[in-house]
Amino acid sequence: MHQCSVFGLLLLFVGCVCQYQPTWESIDSRPIPAWFDQAKFGIFIHWGVFSVPSYGSEWFWWYWQGQKYSSYVKFMEKNYPPGFTYADFAPHLTAELFDPNEWVDLFAASGAKYIVLTTKHHEGFTMWGSKYSWNWNAVAVGPKRDLVDEIASALRKRTDLHLGLYHSLFEWFNPLFRADADNQFKTNVFPTTKSLPELYELINKFKPELLWSDGDGDAPDSYWNSTGFLAWLYNESPVRDSVVTNDRWGYGSICNHGGYFTCTDRYNPGHLLKRKWENCLSIDQRSWGFRREAKLSDYLSTEQLIAALVETVSCGGNLLLNVGPTHDGRIVPIFEERLRQMGQWLQVNGEAIYNSSAWRVQNDTATPGVWYTWNKERNAVYAFFLSWPADGFIVALLGVSQLLSWASVSPTGLKVQLPTLIPGQMPGGWTLLLTGVQ
């Protein structure tokens, strides 16, 4: 389906080359576009109908009616009338306080280089006016606005952010998917009439540079025609040269096939992988969507987030940091604070993050909490240290103009005299610039 056309094959001499075939061997051979490896840091946005109850998790519908978890059932019995359905939440996704330009300005201030917006989660509600979700989308009900288009338009006014879109392949309670599942996926009515047409629509309308697939529903990639779609995406789509994809394209494909690897949520292996990877991490440790009942202790601190960024980048990965907006379109102050503090840290230490590569070693075995990156153009090694040493010894410190004195340590290593600095002036970690390292 949507493979390279015969007409296209007749035009090989003018550049219409169907380079990638609909096989994993061919799809996996495609290099990751350079912009993604250089970006290092992105923002994940989980926003949907689940933002209305904003309780427990973005999996609210499934936990309430699919699994009938007692806490969710009791929450509904206590706060909503009998007969209230999940669809009744949709009109309350009002987005009346949503300002896409404010969002984009905040994401840029965080130091992120790309965003990944949830266009459709497993609930099936599309945040754009999809013609394949005719009565269950943000234009037909709720805000009655094309939220994806508004964010994409605001983002394209800038040159420092790339657009990424998240899309769930399956939908928990869609009767077409349930029928295919009951048939052990020997029928494929749902992907051919719903999921795949949505993907083509997203790519052709919004032209994202990153496509974050999710939710295989335990169905194999052959059911989703994943390799056929990816061959079209890489050969013929309007973003064929720049687009990046992940590895969630069917049961068994995660951490094995596709573009870069995500492997599991909050994946942070602590060592270098042979393939590009991403650590998707939520500021709220218990949920990707906004939760009204969250406590302060549920949120990762700025220091923890910077440590995650440093460790991830040192091991060759990107950090995709998640926020969950409210039903009315706000990014609450604690999320804003974390993002702005990340940006402040990156203003000083960003040269050791962006456009860097993994060094020959990732972390220091002699001094815990020290991680390294390498800048090939400068032939410089950067050493991050996540805690300020008590003796004042940890060659230049980023953000400090003076050169630091140092001495060799036998058999190999350095002992660097740090300047007088209040550690709180730069929360989360500091970076040494080491030049001339062999």
Query: Helix amount, in percent?
Result: 25-40%
Structural class: alpha/beta
Rg value = 23 Å
SSE arrangement, N to C? HHHEHHHEHEHHEHHEEHEHEEEEEE
CATH architecture level-2 label of the largest domain: Alpha-Beta Barrel
Rounded mean pLDDT score: 89
Largest sheet: 7 strands, parallel
**Inertia-based shape:** globular
The CATH class of the largest domain turns out to be Alpha Beta
Strand order of the largest sheet: 5-4-3-2-1-7-6
CATH evolutionary superfamily of the largest domain: Glycosidases
**CATH topology category name of the largest domain:** TIM Barrel
Percent of residues in beta strands: 5-15%
Q: Counting H and I runs of at least 4 residues, what is the number of helices?
A: 13
Number of strands: 13
List the helices and strands and how they pair.
Blueprint: H1 6-9, H2 24-27, H3 34-39, E1 41-45, H4 60-66, H5 70-79, H6 100-109, E2 114-120, H7 147-155, E3 162-168, H8 175-182, H9 189-206, E4 210-214, H10 221-224, H11 226-235, E5 244-245, E6 277-282, H12 302-314, E7 317-323, H13 333-349, E8 370-375, E9 380-385, E10 396-397, E11 406-408, E12 414-416, E13 430-435
Parallel strand pairs: 1-2, 1-7, 2-3, 3-4, 4-5, 6-7
Antiparallel strand pairs: 8-9, 9-13, 10-13, 11-12
Helix pairs in contact: 4-5, 6-7, 6-13
Short description:
The chain has 438 residues and is α/β, with parallel strands linked by helices.
